[in-house]
Amino acid sequence: MANREIHDLNPVGTVSSDDLLASQQDAGGSTWVTGKLSLSALGVFINKVLQYASDLTTTAKTIIGAINEINAKAGYTELTETLAVGSTTVVFTDNAIVDGITVQPFVDEAFTGVVPTAQATDGTNHTLTLTFPAQSSAMPVKVRIS
Questions:
Q1: Beta partners for 139?
Q2: What is the mean pLDDT of residues 65-86?
Q3: How far apart are CA 4 and CA 129, in angstroms?
Q4: pLDDT the model gives residue 53
Q5: What pLDDT shows up at residue 10?
Q6: Which of 36, 84, 94, 130 suits a disulfide with 116, CB 3.0-4.6 Å?
Q7: Cα–Cα distance measured from residue 1 to residue 5, given in angstroms and rounded to the nearest whole number
Q8: CB atoms < 10 A from the CB of 108, how many?
Q9: Residue spans of alpha helices (H) in 14-104
């Protein structure tokens, strides 16, 4: 019988139609055909999957780098921390935190109306401490400093 190619984005091997098993499974309207695949073709496929994952990681790092570059050009740095349940302070640490900075805090919209009650900056240790009323659930807090 004729050979048929198995594809991901590029051919990774061939399988004889004799190797295809007649069993089909219908899962939610999908048809599954099972068959045999040589170890070398499987190895090529796995290597391609790993390469795609690596490329995706590189792309994500490139996007994050671009965002950081844009933020730097915009003249501000954004930092995110979480106010723990029952806690009243959240501490940010970053070299961009120096004495005399401008701080713009943001909270998740689920916590609209919750604002810091105090703020302390330690330029020597590069820390910013914001004090909030204690919350019954963890609260993400983002600050934009310039």
A1: 83
A2: 84
A3: 64
A4: 78
A5: 47
A6: 130
A7: 13
A8: 14
A9: 39-74
